[in-house]
Amino acid sequence: MKKLGIIGSGDLGQLIAHHAGGTYNVIGYFDDFIEKNSVVSGLKVIGKVEDILMAFKNGVIDELIVGIGYKHFEFRKTIFNTFAGKIPMANVIHPSSYIDPSCKIGFGVFILPGCVLDRNVVLKDNILLNTGCIISHDSLVGSHSFLSPAVKVAGFVAIGECCNIGINTTVVDNITIVSNSQTGGGTVVIKDIIVPGLYVGNPARFIK
Questions:
Q1: Which of 7, 52, 121, 186 has fewest C-beta within 10 Å?
Q2: How many angstroms separate the Cα of 73 from the Cα of each of 16, 66, 201?
């Protein structure tokens, strides 16, 4: 198995480590805020972000994935772009999820249990799909975005970059959601979201 390093030892990094164990040899975390050689959930912090390239060159890791959460989208995006093209970015995809062979999946993608991706779905880079997400045919999710548990996306939807789609959100067909948008739990999106911000309710309404 290939050796995987995870950027960030917080909740998301630990979740990735948990689900990657059957596919990768998870070596440990890179974290600027935890002392080197500290143990987090059974795995060592093997260095800081500045140590990643050397760890790759020395064969300590073969692939890398970003475990920075949705509260730090810009940092998550910056970190990914810093190493993409220099180190292979791992995809961690739970075997219980169904991904149609026609789908196109980018790099650094984390897909949790029970997700369904239908025909011609496109996932760009550095995306997280939480448990039970359903994305229907011909829809696209932009880079660095998070889809929370039980999000349902109909066909021909385009979700931009750095979006945080809240738990149990429903997006009807032929909708565009602009980058840097967020929906609250249970939101129903029936019209295009063209202004970044937080949307809640049924139908979705702009909050801030």
A1: 186
A2: 17, 11, 23
Residue 201 DSSP SS3: coil
Integer Cα distance of 177 and 164 in angstroms = 11
Within 10 angstroms of residue 23's Cβ, the number of other Cβ atoms is: 16
- pLDDT for res 22: 87
Per-residue tokens: 99: 């991904």
Kindly list the domain boundaries of the chain, sorted by start residue.
Answer: 3-83, 92-198
Residue 134 CB partners (closer than 8 Å, separation 6+): 115, 116, 118, 151, 152, 153
Structure-token pair, residue 52 = 């990643």
The predicted-structure confidence for 38-91, as pLDDT tens digits, reads as follows 999 999 999 999 999 999 999 999 999 999 998 899 999 999 999 999 999 999
Read out DSSP for 120-160?
T-EE-SS-EE-TT-EE-TT-EE-TT-EE-TT-EE-TT-EE-
The CATH fold of domain 3-83: Rossmann fold (3.40.50)
Report the alpha-carbon distance of residue 167 to residue 61 in Å, rounded: 34
pTM: 0.96
